[in-house]
Amino acid sequence: MLLIVALMAFGGGWFFYDGKVAWPKKNVAAIAKRAFESASEGIKWSDYILVDNDFIDAGFSEPSDELALIMLAHSEGGKARPWSEYIISSSGRNALERINNKELLQQAYDAGLEGALTWKEYARENDIPDSKEGANGDSKHGQYGWESFQSAFYGASKKRQWAFYGTASGQKGWDVKNPVYHSSSELVGQLGIAYVLWAMAVVAFFWMLISRRRRLSADDESLTTERGVRVLFTSVFEVDVRKWDKKGLAYAKYHNEDGADRQAVIDDLKYKEADEILERLLSNFSGRLIEKLKVKGEGVNEEDQVEEKAVSATDIQRSEDS
Q: pLDDT at position 138, please?
């Protein structure tokens, strides 16, 4: 019972942390990505906050650190692609491998970033062939060099990518390519589950305190249930042990003092030595024993095979002796 209480308390803490801390942080990352990409598409901040449903759902109505981060992401998304992001991209790495001259590559990139010259104009000024055909016979840089310079020049005009900015931002969780947004209703649901689990843990804890004095016992003539009811073995007329092997549960039906049918439960998971109590009951009662019939063979479902048989204490004693 103490383990169950601990598991429910821990589970409640897990859901509470998700709903209060982890998921809101992921939401900031998801919204920041959307703001970043909207700016790279030319959408102004004043327009973005009116059309992004996730931003509206998050309810950033007052200035906060989270709102400041999202606004910063939007402003960065609207800026030109920096050299630091190009050189770590796949095209930038390929260009650097081919020409192995970072300084010359950055010069071509800066020229493309400034936009003052066309590619052909820049190529002529820097003794670079302006076409692929001309690059084939170029002894200075060759075709691969030409492709590298052109990649750097045109790479400056491409849109910024969240994958690079998110990682470079240093914010935890922003290095995820597609951060998931969790709606406000999902956050409330996480907190609700946490409170329910904590309430169940409190109930289970007090139930454990109340139940800790309960006992399951047996003497030569009877067993005493966890509720303190004494059941004579001679009053038991049926024992069901189908759930004993897997769940540690056995049920004994008996006649009480008024002649009414009642049921006693023997729980091997809750009480120590419950197996010995069941053995004593089986050795001292006469009635119907219900147990699983272990039949093996093709097309036979063992779970559905049940055997009911009338037994007496003498029969069980003979079986044990044999």
A: 55
Tell me the C-alpha distance between 146 and 148, whole Å. 5
Give the 3-state secondary structure of residue 59. coil
b/e 101-125 (16+ beta carbons within 10 angstroms → b)? eeebbebbbebbbeeeeebeebbee
User: Average pLDDT per run of 10 along the chain, which is 322 residues long?
Assistant: 93 96 94 93 92 90 88 91 88 85 89 88 83 66 81 88 88 90 95 97 91 85 90 94 92 92 91 90 90 61 57 52 46
Out of 175, 190, 205, a domain closes at: 190
Residues spanned by the domain of 141 = 83-155
Q: Are strands 217-218 and 287-292 parallel, antiparallel or unpaired?
A: unpaired
Asked whether residue 72 falls in the same domain as residue 148, the answer is: no
What are the φ/ψ torsions at residue 139 (nearest 5 degrees)?
-85, -15
Burial pattern 15-45, b for ≥16 Cβ within 10 A else e, equals bbebbeeebeebbbbbbbbbbbbbbbeebee
Residues 36 and 175 reside in one and the same domain: yes
Tell which of 155, 177, 207 closes a domain: 155
Residue 255, CA distances (Å) to 222, 252, 260 in order:
13, 10, 5
Token output for 16: 């509470």
Q: Report which secondary-structure segment, H or E, holds 162.
A: helix 162-169
The answer to whether the pTM exceeds 0.70 is: no
Residue 281 belongs to some domain of the structure? yes
Number of folded domains in the chain? 3
